[in-house]
Q: What sequence folds into this?
């Protein structure tokens, strides 16, 4: 009798958990919006460039990886002052707090495209895949098309 009761409880919990999971999988869809995605066009033999964009998530999410066929290696970078020098550093993930727009821009967070397959010319479209992970460790891929802009198209410096 005792065991039966316990079993009932477990079943009830399992149903509740399933309901929560189902609700989450609905809201987890298309939770991340990206706008103004661009890539810096390369100059001469340059094999490295940066990708920038504005990312807004409707729920707490993390950007955990970035992929692109345009480069052999893609990393997530930040820039910080080290004594008087700005240095780039690879970061494992970037928090995307709910409702807050996180800006990837020159001099700050950026996506680093390393060992480019071919030069990036102004006007080119570079496909980048953002891999985001929500609090339940559920991952989702977001396809982004970034337009290449030349150095002179931006007032900022890398
Ligand atoms: Cu970098």
A:
């Amino acid at each position: 009798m005792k065991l039966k009761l316990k079993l009932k409880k477990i079943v009830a919990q399992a149903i509740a958990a399933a309901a929560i999971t189902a609700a989450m999988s609905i809201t987890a869809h298309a939770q991340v919006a990206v706008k103004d995605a661009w890539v810096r066009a390369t100059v001469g033999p340059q094999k490295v460039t940066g990708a920038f964009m504005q990312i807004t998530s409707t729920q707490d999410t993390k950007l955990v990886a970035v992929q692109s066929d345009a480069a052999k290696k893609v990393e997530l970078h930040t820039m910080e002052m080290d004594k008087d020098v700005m240095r780039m550093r690879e970061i494992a993930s970037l928090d995307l707090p709910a409702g807050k727009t996180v800006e990837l821009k020159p001099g700050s967070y950026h996506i680093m495209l390393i060992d480019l397959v071919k030069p990036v010319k102004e006007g080119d479209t570079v496909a980048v895949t953002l891999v985001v992970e929500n609090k339940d460790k559920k991952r989702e891929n977001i396809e982004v098309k970034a337009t290449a802009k030349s150095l002179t198209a931006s007032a900022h410096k890398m």
Notes: Residues 50, 77, 88, 110, 112 surround copper (II) ion (CB under 6 Å). The chain is about 15% helix and 50% strand. The chain has a mean pLDDT of 87.
